[in-house]
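Reading a protein record of the kind used here takes little practice once its layout is understood. The reader may check this reading against the record printed directly beneath this paragraph.
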Amino acid sequence: MRILIVTHVVRKNDGQGRVNYEIVQTALAAGHCVTLLAAEAAAELVEHPRVRFVRVATSRLPTRLVQYQMFALRCGAWIRAHRKEFDVVHVNGFIAWASSDVNAVHFVHDGWYRCGFYPFRFLRSFYHAYQVLYTWLNIACEKWSFRHTDVIVPVSQKVAGEVRALGIGGARVQVIHNGVDIDEFRPGASERAHFGLPEAPFVLLFAGDLRMSRKNLDTVLHALVQTSAEVHLAVAGILHNSPYPAVVESLGLSERVHFTDMVMDMPALMRSVDAFVFPSRYEPMGLVLLEALSAGLPVITVRTAGGAEVIGADSGIVLDDPDDAAALAAAIMRVAGDSGYARGLGERARDVARGLSWQAMAERYLTVYEQVHARRAAQALPRECATEAVKL
């Protein structure tokens, strides 16, 4: 097949970019030709003989809103000019003013806007008004994009529900969960000293953006107050402009919370802790949650976190309310207080992750491509036969 993938970035160290990177690698291994219409792509892909990289320049106009629209206009014009060259056109959400065959949906702005934890208010300030307008525009653009594609591929059932809430027919929706590197993220020897973590206590890990409340570190900290003093917390994320060190001090947790700042070797950090806590108030599909499962960690999460849907009662703990600190504390103590229970959760979590490898994810995308290609070929055949009959 001749495949066109339209995205901003295709590389390993980027969430959405990693998804597209793995799809490209698997498509190339299967003998297909891939064109990347993007702002940036990994060098090893660009150098491949069956990869064509078409760089889309990023606009220098002010505001992200205008920059994204310029990117979408440029991509749309290029797709319309070259559409006949491809068997499958794969876009990612709203990224181009052009129709597509496959739309991989990693985030739905309408779902974020209506989830109950959306932080911006139109009349609060100029910054808030801009953020609301940005969200509204994205909602409208995503609706248009979803209506102008053949197959919609949400990255979780949570995201699929948000797509359907926009009035998009369920028959066109095929969920493909994001993947995880099960070789990179695996159980192994602890390296606590390397991360400045104490050797003796039970250590939880929280990883995420420490500048926003959506990831919900505040509830984790309030839950930690209600647990045993032997339970510690490692916090991985950029500390600059984060309010949480001050919150930790105000709660009297300075001896039990260990900020690692940005961690480049997350697999090693996950091998150095005892459990993973992820009560995100809103998450389409958290890659870090899948990485924790693959590392064989007991995972404590909430239903509002995309990815929780892959966890069963034997592979993790899924709570109902992300803001219930007492319930979170009880779950933490259940895992921390029973090593056999924790070990069983971790072993089953690893089993779940094996079915969510990058290879398995990419092969599911290729199956969708093949279905689309076959359907397009079948639709073209009657037209070709009719043309031939006219010639006769």
Remarks:
- DSSP finds 13 helices and 14 strands in the chain.
